[in-house]
Hints:
By secondary structure, this protein is of the alpha+beta class. 22% of the residues lie in helices and 29% in strands.
Amino acid sequence: MPGPLTAVERFFERIFERPAARLxxxxxxxxxxxxxxxxxxxxxxxxxxxxxxxxxxxxxxxxELAGLGDEVPSFGEALLxxxxxxxxxxxxxxxxxxxxxxxVASGDLAVDTRFSRDGDGERSGSETPRxxxxxxxxxxxxxVFEVPPPRVPYxxxxxxxxxxxxxxxxxxxxxxxxxxxxxxxxxxxxSRVSRQHGLLSARQGGLVYTDLGSTNGSFxxxxxxxxxxxxxxxxxxVGGSTVRVGRAQ
Length: 249
């Protein structure tokens, strides 16, 4: 639920943005959408774990759709950068959907947020257990729950380590340990890589990378990270090695 500060920001947005649009006949601008999406992310942050929603629906007047459709991919990237710069945690890469709503005034917009769902699963880190059949259970017995196994994405990683030929690594397990020690799933013979450097985890059908307190840190697309959702094209750098995420098959 949005906090008091977010509510105040939205109040002033309504005061200044709507009258200006009506006075000058201006439609919704992409920068306005990005600003409102960032405020929606800030306001929906789940404390104390720092998770933020990864699903965003932007509702605009039908007349505004044509001018914003080509910008939707950039909205998702902007949200990803906003989350990384603020240290937020995402279940998976943000998805932005643009939809028409006649109830929204021309020149204005509304943003709805939610955490992604996968079947009966809730957001990453707190998946809803599914009940096991209790047809034969005695009356008054406690219902037994079974936690569903995580969905495992199939991703192809292009691994480059100094002095070693580039190679591909297929992700087929719920977790992949990355480090210099030979007991890791993805071993990087790199002196700047810690013995237990990081962990790739399957969450809600996506990949999340977590730095395990490494000495030299972890970087994604040039920015230092502790935990971040990864997608196709992202480049993880650990020590002098890089791991590029390929598209799921």
